[in-house]
Write a structure and sequence with these properties.
There is one protein chain. With 142 residues, the protein is α/β, with parallel strands linked by helices. The chain has one domain: 3-Layer(aba) Sandwich (Rossmann fold), CATH 3.40.50. 35% of the residues lie in helices and 21% in strands. It contains 5 helices and 5 strands. The protein has a 5-stranded parallel beta sheet. The longest helix is centred in the C-terminal third of the chain and has 16 residues.
Length: 142
């Protein structure tokens, strides 16, 4: 069985994440959605592990497993049987960021490939940080 890890803070989960997950499930038998704590993305009292309803609907599948982690991705992956890491790209800026992340992960010992999926063009403007900013202004807790 081919298993991949799809890591992120997913704060909040949105249509772009779902798009990447659906694409990954066409290639892999199982995807572990690894919800990690990213200190650069924490905002006040917001708990990154509180995943929204859209996420919960999306992952009700025997092909998807959800795990939380607060260690390095490389160390998390050692505890799985994953053969790849999944990452989503919206634009060239994402590619640059992900390239640096991949190099760090390789330097730290990651020995499986990172597979990049480009999100649907209709979703390329969506980001969790923008959703959080809009919701903070509107007073909505995601």
């Amino acid at each position: 069985m081919k298993t991949a890890v799809y890591p992120g803070s997913f704060n909040p989960w949105h249509q772009g994440h779902s798009d990447i997950l659906r694409k990954a499930l066409k290639v892999f038998d199982k995807v572990i959605v690894a919800v990690g704590r990213n200190p650069e993305k924490s905002f006040g009292e917001y708990n990154i592990y509180l995943l929204n309803t859209d996420f919960k609907k999306e992952v009700i599948s025997s092909q998807v497993e959800t795990r939380e982690f607060s260690i390095l991705l490389v160390d998390f992956i050692k505890n799985t049987n994953a053969c790849a890491v999944i990452r989503g790209l919206r634009n060239g800026s994402d590619l640059q960021y992900e390239q640096n992340q991949q190099y760090w992960n390789e330097d730290l010992g990651l020995n499986i490939p990172t597979i990049y999926f480009i999100c649907d063009r209709k979703l390329s403007h969506i980001s969790s940080s923008t959703i959080r900013a809009v919701n903070m202004i509107k007073g909505i807790n995601t």
